[in-house]
């Protein structure tokens, strides 16, 4: 006996369409499971006492809270003098960002003893010790690490943070170690000055991941909808 002995051609078409819809939904779930989730896996957990507004990418693997919907934002160029030298406003912001994005793995005091880093290999950097910094301990070195991440480790790129927030964070990371971090390279500092002064930033619109999945599933279903049986001739 064959399947078409039990089902009419119209019913077979509806069955095939339903199967395609299910496979499409599973493909979407797999896409988010293998691309979005790993990208968020090693982001930091939002600590209860961190007084800072969420920015793009800050929801982490320890925090089930989804992104809030945010409109597009245009950030103009920044005067390098306000970010390349630490000041009270910059350090306050940097400490808030550190508490929200770094402390879970690196610990509140930067000793690499945060609960989120216990199972990581290699272990999170101890910012209070001078030895073994992969990219160096100068301001430009720390900014580079935040911008690019470190391959082969759980230290991912934080380039979803604004340039100003990354620089504020770099100053805070430096402040956690009492040792001499070394004199900066004038050429590297000049490049950073040009980076901040010459171009602004555009933060795109964003919607919660759950909402994005819902929209994608709805659009797929609408595109592959089976006409009512009464319209099939």
Summarize the structure.
With 233 residues, the chain is mostly helical.
Structural descriptors:
233 residues, mainly alpha, Cytochrome Bc1 Complex, Chain D, domain 2, two-stranded antiparallel sheet, 43% helix, elongated, disordered N terminus
Roughly how much helix do the residues carry, as a percent range?
A: 40-55%
Count of β-strands: 2
Q: Considering the protein shown, what is the CATH homologous superfamily?
A: Cytochrome c-like domain
The CATH architecture assignment turns out to be: Orthogonal Bundle
What count of structural domains? 1
Oligomer: single chain
Largest sheet: 2 strands, antiparallel
Q: Tell me the radius of gyration.
A: 24 Å
Adjacency order of strands in the biggest sheet = 1-2
Tell me, what's the shape? elongated
Q: What is the strand content?
A: under 5%
The whole-number mean of residue pLDDT values reads 78
Query: What fold name stands as the CATH topology?
Result: Cytochrome Bc1 Complex, Chain D, domain 2
CATH class: Mainly Alpha
Query: Number of helical segments?
Result: 7
Q: Catalogue the unreliable spans.
A: 1-7, 36-65
Describe the structure.
This protein has 233 residues and is an all-alpha fold. The protein has helices at residues 9-40, 88-101, 103-106, 139-148, 163-175, 186-198, 209-223, and strands at residues 73-75, 201-203. The chain has a single domain, classed as Orthogonal Bundle (Cytochrome Bc1 Complex, Chain D, domain 2). Helices cover 43% and strands 3% of the residues. Strands 1-2 form a two-stranded antiparallel sheet. Helix 1 runs antiparallel to helix 7 (209-223), helix 2 (88-101) packs across helix 5 (163-175) and helix 4 packs across helix 5 (163-175). The chain is elongated and about 80 Å long. Mean pLDDT is 78; it is low at 1-7 and 36-65.
